Amino acid sequence: MKDDHEQDHGQVPEQDPVRDPEAGASAPVVSRRSQQIQAAAPFRMLFEFLRRRAAAEAEADDQGRGEHDLLDFTFGDPHELAMPAYVEALRSAAVPRDEQWFAYMQSEQAAQDAAAASLERVVPLGWTGDDLRMTTGGFGAITVAMKAVADPGDEVVYTLPPWFLYEILAVEAGLVPVKVPALQPGFDLDLDAIAAAITPRTRVVVVNTPNNPSGRVYPPAQLTALAAILEEASARNGRRIWIVSDEPYNRIVFDGKPFHSPTQFYRHTLLCYSYGKTLLAPGQRVGYLAVPPGLPEADTLMGAIDSLQVAGGWLFPNAVMQYAVPDLERLSIDIDALQSKRDRLVGALREMGYDVASPEGTFYLWPRSPVPDDEAFVASLARRGVLVMPGTLFETPGWFRICLTATPASIEAAIPHFRAAINEAKRADPPS
C-alpha cells in the first residue's frame, strides 16, 4: 500500500508486459516505457474520447446527416479555409532559390531572428535570434525543454486541469508527473499546493499561460510569488528548479489584457511557443524553444538543446516551414472575431443557467457541467450533434471544454442544443 505522498507524486504503476507468443512467455513485445505511456490516464481517456467521437460521426452518417452536420467544438482545428496570406507564404517558401533549398536543416537563423523580434514585442526582455531554436511545434519545444534540464527519475510539477499530454511527455522522458489542482472556480495557481508538492527530486514546474482549458492569464502577483517559491526551494534543494512555460496562446489575449510571461519574473524559465494557434494551422508543425537573454547557463543549455533535437529524431521544422516564418510572423487569426464568438457564447450560456467564466485568452470556454457527471452531460450533447470535451479528459471532473474555432454559424446552430441539454439536466435533477 503506497502512502499519500507517493500517490500524490504520480508514480506510474507497473504494467504486465504484453507478451510475444513466438518468443516465449517471458519476452515482452513492447518496452516498459511504451506501456507506461499507454497506461497514463489522460492518454487512455483521449483515445477513448476519439473513439466515441468517431462513433458519433458514424451515427450521424447512418441518420443521413453526415459528419459535416455535426457541430464540432472539440479540438482547436480550423473550420474554414486558411488565410490566403498564409497559403501564399508557404507557396513562396516552397519555391527553391538554390540547390541546397531542401537540404538538411537544423534551426534556420532567419527564422530565429524573425521569431525573436516578434517575441520581443510580446515579452520585452531583449531577445535575439540566438536565444531560441526552432522546433516541431510546441510539442517538440516542451519535449526538448524537459529533457534538457531533467534526468530520469526527476519530478515534473504541473497544475490541473492541464493540457492533456504533459503526462505522457514526462513519462516518455523518464520523469515523474506531480499533479496539483488549480484553485476553483477561478483556476488560479494554488501556490501553497505547488510549494507543498516540491521535493528534492523536483526539477521542472510547467506553467501554461494563457491556460488551456480555463483561459486564465496568470497575473504578475501570482508569477512573482511562484518565482519566490522556486528560488527558495532551489536553494534548499541545492539544485535549480526550472519553469517550462508553455505559451502557445500568448498572442491570443482578449479585452486588451496585458500578457505576462514567467520569463519576466524567474530567469530560469524555458519558453515554448507554437505557431499552430495564432495561425490556426496545427498540422503545419513549427514553433520554438527560447532561453531568456543573459542567463548564465545559456550556452550550455543551447548546446544541450541542439543535441537533443538531433537525438530525439531530428526535431527541427521542415525547411519550407522555417523559410516561411518571417512572413508568418506578420499574420494572425482575427482576435477580435474570436473575442466576439467568446462573448456571444458566454452570454448565451449564462442566460441559460450555465456557470461559465469569460476566458482571458486562448480559444476555449470552460463551463461547469450542470450535472456532476460531465461525461454523461457531454454524451447528452453528442446525441444532439454537438461535440465538446469532458472535464475528465483534463483530469478535472465536473467541467467541460468548448473550442471557439468553430464558425459563428456553428455557434448559433449549437445554442438551442446547449439550452435543451441544460433544461433536460434540470428536469432530471430539480433543485431541492
From TrEMBL:
EC number: 2.6.1.-
Required cofactor names: pyridoxal 5'-phosphate
Disordered as annotated region, ranges: 1-34
Keywords, comma-separated and alphabetical: Aminotransferase, Transferase
SUPFAM superfamilies in UniProt: PLP-dependent transferases
Biased composition (Basic and acidic residues): 1-22
Superkingdom field: Bacteria
Residue ranges of every copy of the Aminotransferase class I/classII large domain listed in the record: 72-415
GO molecular function: transaminase activity
Family membership: Belongs to the class-I pyridoxal-phosphate-dependent aminotransferase family.
Protein name (record): Aminotransferase
